[in-house]
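To close the section, here is one more complete example, presented without commentary so you can practise reading it yourself. The ligand is flavin mononucleotide.
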Amino acid sequence: MALVLFAGFARAQELKPVKLDAPDKERGVALMKAFSQRASVREWSDQKLSIRDLSDLLWAANGVNRPDEAKRTAPSAMNAQDIDIYVFTEEGVYLYDAFNQVLNPVCSGDHRALPGMTAAPVNLVLISDISRFRMGEDSLKLTWAAMDAGIVSQNISVFCAGTELVTRPRASFPGMDKMKETLNLKDSQHVMLNHPVGYPKE
Ligand SMILES: Cc1cc2nc3c(=O)[nH]c(=O)nc-3n(C[C@H](O)[C@H](O)[C@H](O)COP(=O)(O)O)c2cc1C
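Output:
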C-alpha cells in the first residue's frame, strides 16, 4: 500500500501546480445565443487550450462563484459538492482545486489513450465522491451523483457554445479499473462523464 502511494506521489512530483487565471465574467455571447449554438461534436483541432480558456472553462464548469458561502457555479444535491474535475492533458493529469483556482498534479504523462478518453487537447473527467453525501443508501447517492455530474456537464457544454470551444459529453468508460488505478481513486469515487474540449477543427 505504502509503495503504491509513494509511486503515485513520485509521479505527481514531476508536474507542477498550474495557477489558473481569475475568471473573466464579461466574456462570451449572450446566454440565449449560447443555447442556440450548443451541440456535441466529435472533432477538434490539436491546438492546446490557452490558460485563459482553460481557467474560464473550469470556473464555468464548477468554480466558486460565491466565496462568502463557499458555493459553486453548479448546484449539488445537499450541497455535497461531490463532483471533482480531473483534467487530462498531454503533460499529465491534474485535479481542479476550485477554491484556489489551481490545477494540482495527480500524475504525469499523457493518459488520453485510456479507454473512454479522446485525443482532444483537454479531457475533463467528472468524478463524484459519494462519501460527501451526508445520508442515503449508496444507490440514492449514485443517483444524486449522476444528476450533479449532468449539471456540471451542461455548464461545460453551454460555456463552450458561448465561447467558440467545442465539446461532447461521453459516458462510455470501458476498462474502468485502469482509470481508477491511474488516478488512485478511493472506492467512494465514481467516474461519471468525460468532456473532451478543444477548438473547432479547421
Ligand atoms: C449522459 C450522456 C452521455 C453521453 N455519452 C456519450 C458517449 O459515450 N459517446 C458519445 O459519442 N456521445 C455521448 N453523448 C453525446 C450524445 O450522443 C449527444 O448529446 C446526442 O447525440 C445529442 O446531440 P447534441 O448533444 O449535439 O444535441 C452523451 C450525452 C449525454 C447527455
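Once you have examined the C-alpha cells, check your reading against these statements. The chain has five helices and nine strands. Residues 2-198 form a domain with the NADH Oxidase fold (CATH 3.40.109.10).
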